[in-house]
Design goal:
Strand content: 15-25%
CATH architecture of the largest domain: Alpha-Beta Complex
Helix content: 25-40%
CATH topology of the largest domain: inorganic pyrophosphatase (n-terminal core)
Largest sheet: 6 strands, parallel
CATH superfamily of the largest domain: inorganic pyrophosphatase (n-terminal core)
Strand order of the largest sheet: 3-2-1-4-5-6
Structural class: alpha/beta
Number of domains: 2
Number of helices: 14
Number of strands: 12
Distance between the termini: 35 Å
Radius of gyration: 20 Å
CATH class of the largest domain: Alpha Beta
């Protein structure tokens, strides 16, 4: 954001407004952390606020301060539509195109509210009045911190805001191990801890509470792991029947793809998860170094994201999707061996 945009946003927020804050479908820690972090910040200025997610999110995110105020669009559609239509301002966080919100796309495209985009994904659509886009950032939560700083308001960050922002930075950096984690990221995290974020407690809430079935599903996923050593690639599959067998709950497959990426001499990893309800195969892609899974996903699986972490989808069967994946891979042999 340039100085003029910052001043315009500051003026816009100087009097109470009806504000809606939305994130992408299947929210993760950064989506929930950024929306609720901004929510707690804007509450201090007595705005009429509502966070709306396109659908539900994992149990391990349901402790976050303010989580109980969120509307889930897919089950609270009528009141969500009414709230969106009444909004003066809509903040769109952690996504770069309306289709990332699923069923919310249509109403977000037609609403006349002023839109403010804050996001770190590549190639954002040009739909917002004010856009804060920075693909070098570790997370949208880090961007919310910078946004508050642009408004000269970091003294307003309290325990609730700090907790939310720490959550998103922690999860989107893979507990601070991904390349986008900078010295600035660590300085911000240090300040969030000083302002009340309990780092150990947040980590435990997200990563250290597993059900028996979730661990059994992980075992199943690892049993299904395949390696293509000549292409430095590994992939995992999970069928709908396997998900059902282990009583799959939303979030149970979070991070599983990273086990494939952790293999020695693997720089490209994928997980393919059958979702019969949506009629698609959900795909998560991860990489090390310069191999861009964002470009790979955009080119072949209707997706995108970051250079080293992206998502996609396939509308064919699981076997057909794997066949397509394996047929495409040889095209990338030079890029995969460039590492």
């Amino acid at each position: 954001m340039n100085t003029n945009d910052i001043n315009a946003v500051k003026a816009l927020l100087s009097t109470p407004k009806h504000i809606v804050i939305v994130c992408h479908k299947n929210p993760d820690g950064d989506a929930i952390g950024s929306t609720l972090g901004l929510y707690h910040y804007l509450k201090k200025y007595h705005h009429n606020l509502q966070v709306i997610t396109p659908n539900d999110y994992p149990e391990f995110l349901k402790w976050v301060p303010g989580e109980d105020t969120i509307y889930k669009y897919d089950v609270q559609t009528e009141i969500s539509d009414k709230t969106i239509n009444a909004a003066d301002i809509i903040f769109t966080l952690d996504f770069n195109a309306f289709h990332r919100t699923g069923q919310m796309q249509a109403i977000l495209e037609t609403t006349k509210a002023t839109k403010i985009l804050i996001d770190h994904h590549q190639e954002p659509d040009d739909y917002a009045t004010y856009t804060y886009s920075d693909v070098s950032m570790s997370s949208t939560c880090e961007m919310i911190y910078h946004f508050i700083n642009m408004l000269s308001d970091t003294d307003k960050i309290d325990t609730n805001i700090a907790t939310c922002l720490y959550l998103g930075i922690m999860t989107d950096t893979g507990s601070f191990r991904f390349a986008a984690t900078t010295s600035t990221t660590h300085r911000i995290v240090a300040e969030l801890i000083e302002k009340g974020a309990k780092n150990s407690e947040i980590h435990n809430n997200v990563y250290d509470t597993n059900s028996y079935n979730r661990l059994q599903l992980l075992g199943c996923a690892l049993t299904n792991l395949k390696i293509i050593p000549e292409l430095k690639t590994a992939y995992i599959t999970l069928t709908q029947n396997e998900l059902r067998k282990f009583d799959y709950k939303k979030g149970d497959t979070e991070g599983v793809v990273n086990y494939a990426l952790s293999l020695d001499n693997v720089i490209f990893a994928a997980i393919f998860i059958e979702d019969r309800q949506e009629g698609i195969i959900k795909i998560s892609l991860r990489s090390k170094g310069s191999f861009s899974v964002n470009e790979f996903s955009r080119a072949h699986f209707s997706g995108g994201g970051h250079n080293n972490a992206a998502g996609g989808r396939s509308e064919t069967s699981l076997p057909a999707t794997i066949e397509k994946f394996l047929s495409i891979l040889p095209q990338y042999k030079d890029a995969l061996h460039h590492e």
